[in-house]
């Protein structure tokens, strides 16, 4: 039986090389943002809020911060458009909601939450998701909210190099100061319930209609009260082929590993099978926090068992 009476929370802001973290000013911006959002999450958890409410709140705040590749700060696709993916999952009953390839939605995670709570479905995409947003009273946000000069310059660079790149790709070290990352949150509340949320603008210069791992249950997001909550960031195609979230959960369930061991074993599998590039954050059923990565950096922060908030870059 998992013990109650404490809470845990982890959030991430992307994985990659992030040369820009060598600049103390940039590192401090990330640090402050992660710390601020963790403390918001703490307020929700301390006031008896659910893990689900907590990850939705943290993901929304991360989407609102243009520092990260999600919501407002989303990267641009091959046509210079923003197409976002997001998903949320409740470990109590494995209910989940996801949206993919949506445009003009300020907070895709909230739309994903509505899909989970107000529709019969797990995932809605593109026009259908927008139609549903309208039915839920979620207004569309004009283009100029998303299209920043930094994102346009980043796309031009990727086009010049004829590449599809992670927002903070290791091989794309040009203009590192402009690089931001996909976001995610995983939590365990005071009563031991788990939840996970992931949201992204995807990869720079990606094909129109490309959907990554972030909205795929079992790949970029997973939560099961019996095991753990997982959020991933990195090359979506690598995570989709290895179902990293479900793999880590299954390692706990079937091999009776704890969260730290299962995360290490999951990352090992991810590396061995597909030379996977990226990282994960994991909170297990006992509130133990862990992270695993194959990239040089993973921007993340955590509160383990109600303790003080911590921020880490690797
Ligand atoms: N995993 C995201 C995707 O492939 C990108 C990222 O995490 O930065 O869409």
From TrEMBL:
Substrate binds at residues 210-213, 233-236. InterPro entries: Ntn_hydrolases_N, Peptidase_T2. GO terms for biological process: proteolysis. The active site is at residue 182. GO terms for molecular function: hydrolase activity, acting on carbon-nitrogen (but not peptide) bonds, in linear amides; peptidase activity. The record marks 181-182 as: Cleavage. Keywords: Autocatalytic cleavage, Hydrolase, Protease. It comes from the Bacteria. CDD domains: Ntn_Asparaginase_2_like (cd04512). This is Isoaspartyl peptidase. It comes from Candidatus Thiodiazotropha lotti.
């Amino acid at each position: 039986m998992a013990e109650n009476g404490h809470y845990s929370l982890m959030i991430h802001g992307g994985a990659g090389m992030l040369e820009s973290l060598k600049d103390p000013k940039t590192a401090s911006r990330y640090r402050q943002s992660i710390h601020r959002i963790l403390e918001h999450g703490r307020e929700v958890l301390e006031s008896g809020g659910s893990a689900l409410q907590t990850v939705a709140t943290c993901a929304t705040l991360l989407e609102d911060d243009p520092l990260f590749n999600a919501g407002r700060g989303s990267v641009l696709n091959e046509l210079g458009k923003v197409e976002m993916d997001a998903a949320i999952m409740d470990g109590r009953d494995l209910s989940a909601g996801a949206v993919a390839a949506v445009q003009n939605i300020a907070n895709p995670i909230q739309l994903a939450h509505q899909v989970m709570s107000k529709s019969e479905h797990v995932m809605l995409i593109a026009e259908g998701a927008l139609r549903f947003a309208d039915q839920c009273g979620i207004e569309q946000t004009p283009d100029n909210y998303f299209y920043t000069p930094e994102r346009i310059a980043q796309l031009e660079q990727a086009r010049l190099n004829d590449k599809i790149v992670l927002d903070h790709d290791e091989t794309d070290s040009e203009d590192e100061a402009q690089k931001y990352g996909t976001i995610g949150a995983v939590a365990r509340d005071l009563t031991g319930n788990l939840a996970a949320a992931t949201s992204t603008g995807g990869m720079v210069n990606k094909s129109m209609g490309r959907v990554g791992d972030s909205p795929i249950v079992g790949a970029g997001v997973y939560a099961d009260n019996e095991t753990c909550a997982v959020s991933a960031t990195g090359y979506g195609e690598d995570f989709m082929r290895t179902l990293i979230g479900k793999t880590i959960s299954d390692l706990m369930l079937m091999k009776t590993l704890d969260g730290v061991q299962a995360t290490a074993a999951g990352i090992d599998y991810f590396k061995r099978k597909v030379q996977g590039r990226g990282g994960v954050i994991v909170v297990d059923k006992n509130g133990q926090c862990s992270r695993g990565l194959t990239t040089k950096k993973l921007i993340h922060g955590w509160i383990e068992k109600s303790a003080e908030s911590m921020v880490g870059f690797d």
